[in-house]
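P.,

For your records, the input lines for the assembly:
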Amino acid sequence: MIYKAKASHIGGAFSVIDILTSLYLGNILKVSPDSPDAPDRDRLIFSKGHCTSALYAVLAMKGFFSKDLLERFGEDESLLLCHTSHHLPGVEFSTGSLGHGLSFATGCALAAKRLSRTWKTYAILSDGELNEGSTWEAIQSAAHLRLNNLVAVIDANRSQGLGNTDSVLKLTPLAGKFAAFNWDVIEIEGHDHEQILHATSIDRSEHDSPLCIIAHTTKGKGVNFMEGKLEWHYRSPNEKERDQALEQLSR
Amino acid sequence: MRQAFIEELTLLAETNLNLFLIVGDLGYSVVEPFAERFPDRFLNAGVAEQNMTGLAAGLASCGFHVFTYSIANFPTLRCLEQIRNDVCYHNLPVTVVSVGGGMAYGNLGYSHHATEDLAVTLPLPNIRVIAPGDPFETRLATRELCKKPGPSYLRLGKAREPTIHAAIDGIKDLRTLQILQEGSDVMLVSTGGILEQVKAAAERLTQSGICAGYSSSPYLKPFDEAGLLSIALKTKIIISVEEHGVGGLSSLISETLHRNNMNTLFRCLKTQTENYKFVGSQKHLRAKHGLDEEHISSFAMTCLADLADAT
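Structure tokens returned:
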């Protein structure tokens, strides 16, 4: 997809792919391609919309739309623009501008509470977008509203636009920040499917705060020449790099 | 106007179980009737307008028609991107309500004035933009918004604005330009709470023997182009009057006239950026910007004299 569209953000797509795969294909999310708008479905808000290639791939795998459609990523008149678009079945919310997803997710979670419904809401955020003040407004709000039906998963690949997250705008101690804002916090290895499945399926009914899962990940995970390299926030692989990457990923 | 709004909303919420009100920690002595009657459909989001608006979009995606409420430019400019991306692009039923349109918060200063809000909301997709001219228009606008929920911006004045329409039943269709008095020499077209000054100015002009009309344009989007063109055929000069800078009513009128090849003389009265530094009550500031009855009427006289000289 990214090679063909000459698109960016493959590094962040590889850091979040295991989280998405576990949630959708590990059947954590109660969603169905047969009725993508079912009123009581779980909601997943993908706030790091620039890495949407990963979401699109997983939604296609789940059956929300044809895998053939992925070939049209970023093409003229395609439904698959290079940021997350709600015009696709299975996508709750369009993103791309950072710092929007958690507020929207908070609204979905609050709606379930006020309507006495049981759906759960998940928001996937990048660590870079924790720079945004709006995200912290939402972090305060969700805890204040005691939304135990809300889970925020932070794709903590420690890398953002122009460098390491701590060198751009110091983020650590991240767990301590969320805890101070009255969230429950779990830290996991974000490429370990068992850990992701366990953390995202914890019964929260006896808690009275939202849950933050800090998923420690690696940008460009799975491709040795991409791992931890900032340039893959921007670069699109050439043909040779694509083949090398595919070869490594298929091992 | 804010009282008329909250009364209508509270009444409508009795039967419309989807109505939800979120305030940005503002609305003391205004929103209590709703909050007390419908605690399950009320939220104070705190002083956090971006989250208030994003959260409203989330609620709206789950079936609520959400009203966000704050003052002046706080619920619009402070969280404009949330209105643009989360609400309008997704075409969700969220109505942004601003109290204190224009300079209603007078000596609280420029930070509390809404003088660019129309310019930034009008270009957004799927949105309706409504700035009622009196409490009757406010009531009807609230009812219409609840009847057809969607992305919308309701720009209100503040408190104790006079009713200009004789009766609420006299308003046939709020979506049209409300012609309150016909005028073959000059037609004053206003939007929002400045309507009272426009009415007084028209009365002054009438006393001076000029056939002056005045009208209110509560709907700015969709804008009643047909109504404007019909006015343009019946009057010598159209003057727009608004408590807002460039990009509001004046821009809509000039664009409409130009696009339809109408050469009716058009002039506009609006706020000027060089005057934003001055301190004063709304009355004082309106005069400073040339938006009080005295300035409006003398401006109309000058325009008429210029027109007579030119022909």
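Two observations worth noting. The domain at 2-156 of chain B is CATH 3.40.50.970 (Rossmann fold). The CA atoms of residues 255 and 261 of chain B lie 10 Å apart.

Regards
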